[in-house]
Amino acid sequence: MIGSSPILGEQRYGRGLEDLVAGDTAISDIDGSAGRLLYRGYPIEDLVGQVSFEETAYLVLFGEMPDDTQLEDWSAELRRWRMPPEAALESLQRIPEHAHPLAQFRTMMTVAACHIPEPENTELDAQWRRPARILSWTAALAACAIRHLEGVDPVAPRDDLGYAANFLYQATARTPTAEETAAFEASLVVQAEHGLHAAAFAALVVISTGADLGSAVLAGMGALSGARHGGANQLCFQMLERLEGPEEARLWAREALVRGHRFPGFGHRVYKCPDPRVRALEPYAEALLEASGNERLWRTYLALREEIEAALGGKGIFANVDSITGLIYHPIGLPVSAFPIPFCLAIQTGWMAHCLEYLPDGKVIAPGAVYIDPSFQF
Ligand code: COA
Prior knowledge:
Elements: E1 28-31, E2 36-39, E3 42-43, H1 44-47, H2 53-62, H3 68-80, H4 86-91, H5 101-113, H6 124-128, H7 131-149, H8 163-172, H9 178-190, H10 198-208, H11 213-224, H12 232-241, H13 246-259, H14 276-291, H15 295-312, H16 326-332, H17 340-358
Antiparallel strand pairs: 1-2, 2-3
Helix pairs in contact: 2-17, 3-7, 5-7, 5-11, 7-8, 7-17, 9-14, 9-16, 9-17, 10-11, 10-17, 11-17, 13-15, 14-16
The structure holds coenzyme A.
Coenzyme A (COA) is lined by residues 16, 228-229, 232, 262-269, 312, 315, 317, 320-322.
C-alpha cells in the first residue's frame, strides 16, 4: 500500500518498503533503469579486470582508490588476519552436518566475532579497526566450511597469494590458475557493494543500535541466506544443472512460464533492465566453462536466459547477478551448496562501509507500524 490511506493520512509506506528510501549514501550509485552501478563514482565496468578485490574493498570502505603505499599497507593488514581464532574453527565440529554451509560459516563467525578485542567499545575508531579482520577471518572460515562439506581438513593460508587466490587455494587445496583467479576476482569486485539491499539494511539496523561491527555483519549474513536474496545463486545453478541442454532449457522455460514459475537468478528489486554485473561476468564464465569442457552448460544458460527474458523482459525481469556467479564457481570446483558463501565474502564489504558511513551521527533505526484493528471495516 502506497499513498494516502484512511489510517496513515499522507504518510507513505509499501510492503517490502518498495519505492521507499531508507538513507543516503556516497558509497554506490545504482541506476536501475539504465543498468548502471558505480562505486564511489567508478562504474564497475572500469574496475572489473583492472583492479583487485583488495583495491575494490579499499575504495568501497575508504572512499578513494588506494595509492601504492595505501594498497601495500591495506593488503598487509588483510594478510595479518588470515588465521581466525582456533575456537571458531573448532566450533564447526559441533554444528549439525546437515546445516547449510552458509549457516555453518555464519556460526563459526559468531564464535570468531567474540574474539574481536573490546567488543563493548563501539566508538568510531574501534569500529574502523574491524573491517580488515572481518574480511580475512571470514575468508578463512568460509574456506574451512567448504572443505568440511567433503570431510577434509582446513588448509593453511599462503602469504604469496592475494585475497581471491588465497581463498580459492584454502577452499580447494590447489593453486588456482590465472584464469580462475581473474574470474573469481571479477565476481568479488562486482559483488562488493550494492546499496541498501535487504542484507545491508539488516546490518545497518543492527549497527544503529550501538552494536559492534561483527554483530552487524552477522545480521547481514542471516538476511543474505534467503532464497530471494543470496541463496538464489545456488538455486539458479541447480535449476540449470537439471536441464540436459539448450533445447530442454527452452522447452522447460516455456512450460514453467505458463505455470507462473519464479525463476531463481532472475528479477531484481532495483534493476528493471539487464543487470550490469551479469554483462561484466559473462565473458569470464564463458571462458572458464569452455576451458573446462562445459560448453553445453554455457549454451543451456544462454538458452534459458533468452527464453525468460523474451517472455518477462517487458515486465522488467532479466537475469540478475545470481544467475551467472555459479557458472564461475562451478568450473573452479566450489560445491553448489556453498555458492552463497563467496557472495557473502564480497558483499559484506558494502555492509561494513554502510555501517561506518552511518555511524558518526546515525540515529537508531526504529520505524513505526500502523495498527490494523481486525474488526475495522474499510
Ligand atoms: N521469475 C518470474 N517472475 C518473477 C520473478 C522471477 N524470478 N521475479 C519477479 N517476478 C514477477 C512476480 O511474479 C510479479 O509478477 P506479478 O506482478 O504479475 O504478480 C512481479 O514480477 C513482481 O515481483 P515481486 O516479487 O513483487 O518483485 P520484487 O521486486 O519484490 O522482488 C525479487 C524482487 C529479487 C525478490 C524477485 O525478482 C525474485 O524473487 N527473484 C528470484 C530470486 C532471486 O533471484 N533473488 C536474487 C536477487 S539479486
